[in-house]
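JOB MANIFEST
job_type = single_chain_structure
chain_count = 1
residues = 277
[input]
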Amino acid sequence: MAESAHAENQEIQRSTHSNRWLSANPDKAWAERFFLIYSPIWMISMAAMMLTGWDKSWGDTALLLHGASIALPLFIIPLFTAPLAGVLNSYWFKANLYIFIFGFFGNYVGSEYFFDVLGMVYNYPNASTSLDATLVGNSNQPVPVIMYFYTHAYFMTYHTTAIILLRRIMNSGIPMIGLLFMPLTFATGYCWAWVETKAMANPLMTTSFYYKNMEAMLAYGSIIYATYFIGSFPIFYFIDEKPTARWDNVKVIAAGLSASMIVFYLLEICANLIGSI
């Protein structure tokens, strides 16, 4: 009788475990829901800007305000609506902290590889406020500060959807599924890299943002872009994943810097092996 009850309990636990999309940590699960809900909102705002041509007609201040309106809700809304767990100890804060660090690297340093290796072009003469590396890269293209805001929203969506998908697969109960973690991470990263590239290759953006060789970028460049996510998704996945092993913010900062350095090396390897596309 006891053995039967124990077996039934194990079966229930396996079923619950295998059907899990969101984190078992309630605080993290709340944040994941919020990030998912907010994703179509920032997408609609970005689409409205492109459809109306505001990205070409607005001045620098208006563009910066729009960028802030995209990124800041990821901080401000949870500050007033998240379950009370202490701001600095909350997953939503740690996720934002990590993405801020990683996104800053991606714009400040990583953009130079996109300019020189992938043939990316920014053409925002009305966005006069810029910030980018001085000694990395050969391109004289500036990186508008608005990109730092937009990247924060993009990367939050990419990372959240990726870890939800990876968690569901890892918890599927398939034998030796753990061996597929990195291949699945690459596949997920490549999908997001390709989708973003394809989405940006539209007539509304041809004068503001484009790649010199879009076909090569979609076919091969997306693999290089996916190095961002190969270096970051596996680290981001484990932040507060276990309710009993929560990360402090020093560890989150170290994680964001570590992911950035991993991607830096991966981009260097790609630049040396492939050159420009």
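[summary]
Residues 1-18 have pLDDT under 50 and may be disordered.
Residues 14 and 173 are 8 Å apart (CA to CA).
exit_status = 0
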